[in-house]
Each structure stands twice: as structure tokens, then as C-alpha cells.
Amino acid sequence: MLNIKNFFSELVDISDEDWAIFSSKLIRRCFPKKSVILRIGERENFLSFMENGIIRYNIPKLDYDFTFGFAFSNSFVSGYDSFLTQQPSNYNLEAITDCTLWQISYDDLDYIYENTIIGDRIGRKIAESLYVKKMKREQSLLEDSAQKKYEDLLKEQPELILNIPLKYIASYIGIRPQSLSRIRKQIK
């Protein structure tokens, strides 16, 4: 829980009283590697802070899984559109590695907004963080080559990318695994 408190302390000045209320609503959950945390058709009930691990956002198809995002340690993860609308998710969240999440429910987050001084600001900072990540991804999809997308992922999380199967990385950057192998050979 220390990681999430440190994360918030960098964003806002949170009082001990507000932290006590917020932290009392957090639930620690551990997911083993390959667990589906959110399944297509389920409603996202939690906003989560990932203490450790890697999560993949994906849309499974019969012959190919489309990976469109990753979340890494010390970041927020959620089927955020489903969380906000309380409608079923159109994608899965899958643990690529063992993951530890600190989760807060939709209702408990609403309680935080209503009963703490800093709640709205925390919510805004979380939303901004998820939005910026989404916008960077969209811009990258439009402008960057597959090689640049791969190099950026290497820069973002060099030690963690080793834990992501190459087929997921290839899907994320929009190419087949064989093409990724060629890019990796060129970089070395």
C-alpha cells in the first residue's frame, strides 16, 4: 500500500485523515500469471493500482489475439470505459505475470469523492493519467513505424518487456511475430 500512497503524494498533498478514509476502501488482490482479471461481457467494478506485474489489454479472436495495451507496475489499470459507464467490457484484461492490485470499487470511489477534501482531485489525476496514456498510444498507432513502437516499449519498461511473450508484443505494435523477429535482429 506504500507504493500507492507515494504515488498520490507526488500528485497531491493528501492529509492523514483523507488517506485513512481512502486506504480503508482499498482491497488487495493477487492474480496469478495468465489470470483473466476482466472478461469481455463483464462490467468493470474496480479501478486498480498495480503494485507489481504486467497486464495485457486484449480482444481475443478465433485465430489471433489482438493486444492493444499493457499496464506495468506502479500504474493504474482498469477497463476504465466500462468502469465509468458501468456497461459490459468489450475486451479482456489478462495478467501476463503474477500481479498484485490495490482495488477500489465504483461505489467506494464515489464515497471518496463525496467524503474527502482531496477525492475529486485524486479522481481527476487518475483519469488524466489514463487519458494521456491512451492518447500517446493512439498517436503512436497513427504515426510510428513498428520498429519505433518496439523501441519505445523497450525504453518504457526494458526489464519488464522480457516477460511479455513476443506474440503479444507483435500484436501490440501491429505486426506478425516473424516481422518482430526481423526488427529485433536489426536493433541488436
UniProtKB/TrEMBL annotation:
UniProt cross-references to InterPro entries, sorted A to Z: cNMP-bd_dom, cNMP-bd_dom_sf, RmlC-like_jellyroll
**UniProtKB keywords:** Kinase, Transferase
Q: Which Pfam families match?
A: cNMP_binding
Q: Can you tell me where the transmembrane regions are?
A: none
* Example of a GO MF term: kinase activity
Q: Is Transferase one of the keywords?
A: yes
Q: Which domain of life is it from?
A: Bacteria
- Please list the residue ranges annotated as the Cyclic nucleotide-binding domain: 29-114
Task: Please report the name of this protein according to its UniProt entry.
Answer: cAMP-binding domain of CRP or a regulatory subunit of cAMP-dependent protein kinases
* Natural source organism: Epilithonimonas bovis DSM 19482
